[in-house]
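Hey, sorry for the delay on this. The queue was backed up all week. Below are the sequences that define the complex (chains, strands and the ligand SMILES where applicable).
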Amino acid sequence: MQSQRFLFVAILACFLVTIKSTPLSDISDSDESTSVDEKTQKRPDDDSEFDGFPFREDDDSLQDSSREMSVQDHNWDVLIFTQQWPVTTCYHWREENPDQECSLPQKKEFWTIHGIWPTKLHQMGPNFCNNSANFDPSKLNPIEDRLETFWPDLKGMDSTEWLWKHEWQKHGTCAMLVEELDNELKYFEQGLTWREEYIMSRILDASDIHPDSNNTVAAINNAIVKALGKNPSIHCLYDGKHGISYLSEIRICFSKSLELIDCDGIKQGDAVPVGVPGGTIITNCHIGSLVHYPSLVPPLQRKSHWKLPLVNVYKLLQFLMWFTL
Ligand SMILES: *[C@@H]1O[C@H](CO)[C@@H](O)[C@H](O)[C@H]1NC(C)=O
Ligand SMILES: *[C@@H]1O[C@H](CO)[C@@H](O)[C@H](O)[C@H]1NC(C)=O
């Protein structure tokens, strides 16, 4: 009797130890993360499955080879004004890492500003033109509310200042070359002015292109050309896992005197002029397939938790078998 009770206590103790040494969270974490991390671990050079992610040169990556250019020629020809579709930005951001927060704008059908990027024709940059022109957030106080609305940092709740700082240091300091943009407040105000004037959702709506639809790049391009009379540059993120191109950014171009011009001749990541019947489209989107203009960030495809209890029952059985044999 005594020894049986001892045996029981021993079994219980061993069981608890086993449970402890294989924490439940490990099981669930590894189950969940394999689907997401697998690819990244296998291809450490590639930062995501969105292999259309083309904006390394001109978006917010801080390690930047073009920084070296900053001592050289800071002249430029064209201002690229970029609006982004927040749903696609957030989807991509979250696919890179499901733990990353993304704050979508409150309003529906609301394109937001990414930046104003001075650029030479047929070249990237210049970037980071003036190291003494420090970013001073207080200079933006008069327009901060509007910036929060129209030029938000989607990637994180509290980092709005970070996006503005980056855009200013990398692009604003180069835009300073023209008087209309020669300080922080002017640079950001210009973005707001253009955002009010060129409302991308309306431009697309006017050609019956609404969120939650699939369209050819040609149709999107036509909609913009119809509304503006100038050629834009149209950017997609390609989700290789599901084989879907997502509409990501639409860029329009301005001269040094801030007049709307064709984007012809700008060099933008992997966007190139593509010949189509009736003209040329500057884009990185797959020209032959439909581009999805999503209305919602697709839900995370987490593996369900049903495995968890089974795994543990199995472990317990295994343990008991080992113990009793
Ligand atoms: C760089 O920025 C500083 C501070 O705003 C300004 O005084 C200076 O004139 C700028 N230099 C050039 C070359 O634009
Ligand atoms: C658009 O295409 C995607 C991907 O093929 C598909 O899942 C979706 O249902 C399509 N949406 C519409 C409105 O046709």
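The beta strands are 78-84, 112-119, 213-215, 233-239, 244-254, 260-261, 272-276, 279-283, 291-293.

I'll add it to the shared folder too.

S.
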